[in-house]
Amino acid sequence: MRLLERLKQHMPVTHMLAATICVVIISFTAALLPSSDASARSGQPLPLPTAEISNSQEATAKVAQPAQSQPETATVAASQPEPTQVVPPEPENWQDFKIRSGDTLTAVFKRAGLTVRDVFNVTAAVKGTEVLRRIYPGQTLSFVIEEGQLKKLKHIQNKMKSALITRTDEGYEVDNIERDPEIIPAFAEGTIENSLFYDASQAGLSDKMIMELAAVFGWDIDFVLDLREGDSFSMVYEKKYLDGSLIGEGEILAAEFTNRGNTYTAIRYTDSDGSSSYFSPEGGSMRKAFLRSPVDFARISSSFKTRRKHPVLGLTRAHKGTDYAARTGTPIKAAGEGKIIWRGTKGGYGKCVIVQHGGNITTLYAHMNNYRKGQRVGTRVKQGQVIGYVGKTGLASGPHLHYEFRVNGVHKNPQTVKLPHAAPIAKAERERFFSVAKEALAQLESHKATQLASRSN
Questions:
Q1: For the chain, what percent of residues have pLDDT higher than 90?
Q2: What is the pTM of this model?
Q3: What average pLDDT score do residues 140-169 get?
Q4: What is the widest separation between alpha-carbon atoms in the chain?
Q5: Long-range contacts for 14-22 (Cβ within 8 Å, ≥24 apart)?
Q6: pLDDT at 27 over 50
Q7: Topology at the third CATH level for domain 181-288+422-457
Q8: Are β-strands 351-357 and 361-371 bridged in parallel, bridged antiparallel, or unpaired?
């Protein structure tokens, strides 16, 4: 009241009325607004000015951020496990033992400090497999032995093949390990000046590869009788490498041989059944039904003649076959596929084998030193299969093979008789064969051209 009286004294009446009206309006507006308690009860947030909200968030951030960052860092550090140090396994202590001549499995195990019981356990584990069935001098048996017990055994048969036997809780496990060599084509060529063996070896071919070359063309060329100085050959063949080292040779892929002015070309082809053989570029088989010679690289000591003086009897009579002089024990091969119809001693022929081929051709092999084991009358033999060994049984002045070729019982000259060919490339294989042949011949010609160019330079 005193405040009003003072205002009346200092303020005009009109001002007093205006102030009174403002107070009344403010009071009325305040009465209409909800109270803070009502807002809280309704669950609605109190409205704040935009500026106040912004300031509030900044304040929260300034206060909360330091409080959160430190615990988060601590939590992350605590949740990360300590790095574990990887300890490499101890290397296995392998002991290697070379197999000596006359060694048995028991002998090698004994040298390794193992017992007969160990031999029994291992052989029982590999029973029914080829593992350790045969061991040969030069091979290696490697052992891992811990506390007197055999843990592992490795049979290294060669550079590409080995078997690993590992001890487990249930017994021994057997794993066959085979490595595939890298195969790279190689080229060789040569001219005959001395002999096939000498000149081909000078061209870098092994004895095995020279024999393969002779076998490819052996149906068309008698390498004892037909070879002449100036004959030549060229070939693409496989070389096998393991870990960068040459370990052997594979197959002849394509080859040419020029003999007495005639050139023979052979291409290796593997059909869809996996069977491999050699064919001419036209698809004819290089293989004939019969070999020209049943003995490799033997010397012809007597040819087919209508009149010849017998070296033992001294009588003049026909020599109805071809004699091949060779060392005692030289293998004799069946000239063609057929069935043995005679195997035994036959008069002046001595130890003799006769093979029936089809219905009208027979071949006879005489003066043998011995027969191939496991064969008898009725046994079927394949072309090139060994049937006996050179000797001098019967009426023979020295070790040699007497070979006869008969057609319908009539003797023919084995060196000149026309030999039937084997079947040509099958019709279903011809398209694929010609594609393979084209590539093989191109490779052979490319190598020949490269060699010619290098010689010219």
A1: 46
A2: 0.57
A3: 90
A4: 184
A5: none
A6: yes
A7: Nuclear Transport Factor 2; Chain: A, (3.10.450)
A8: antiparallel
Cα–Cα distances in angstroms (integers) from residue 264 to residues 232, 260, 304, 322, in the given order: 11, 11, 26, 25
Q: How far apart are the first and last CA of the chain?
A: 135
94-178: which CATH topology? Nuclear Transport Factor 2; Chain: A, (3.10.450)
**Is pLDDT of 55 > 70?**
no
Identify the CATH homologous superfamily for domain 299-412: Glucose Permease (Domain IIA) (2.70.70.10)
pLDDT in tens, 97-124: 999 999 999 999 999 999 999 999 898 8
Cα torsion for 412, 418, 423, 424, to the nearest 10°? 170
CA dihedral sign of residues 79, 82, 88, 90: negative
User: Which tokens sit at 44?
Assistant: 């609605």
Say how many residues make up the chain.
457
324-361 core/surface letters (b: 16 or more CB in 10 A; e: else): bbbeeebebbbbbbbebeebeebeebbbbbbbbbeeeb
The percentage of residues in the chain with a pLDDT greater than 70, rounded to a whole number, is 77
Judge whether 181-288+422-457 and 299-412 match in fold.
no
Q: What is the mean pLDDT of residues 199-225?
A: 88
- Indicate the domain borders of the chain: 94-178, 181-288+422-457, 299-412
Centroid of chain to Cα 275:
17
Pairing of strands 322-325, 400-407: antiparallel
> In the 8-state DSSP scheme, what is residue 21?
H
Q: Write the CB contacts of 378 (distance below 8 Å, at least 6 apart in sequence).
A: 339, 340
Q: Could you give the CA distance from residue 131 to residue 123 in angstroms, rounded to a whole number?
A: 9
| DSSP-based three-state secondary structure for 1 | coil
| Of the candidate ranges 37-41, 149-153, 282-286, the one whose mean pLDDT is the lowest | 37-41
d(CA 37, CA 34): 8
More confident residue, 371 or 359: 371
Are 128 and 134 spatial neighbours (Cβ–Cβ below 8 Å)? no
**Per-residue pLDDT tens digits for 199-208:** 999 999 999 9
Half-sphere exposure of 14 (CA within 13 A, CB side): 0
Is 390 in contact with 399 (CB distance < 8 Å)?
Answer: yes
Q: How far apart are CA 175 and CA 156, in angstroms?
A: 12
User: Residue 37: pLDDT above 70?
Assistant: no
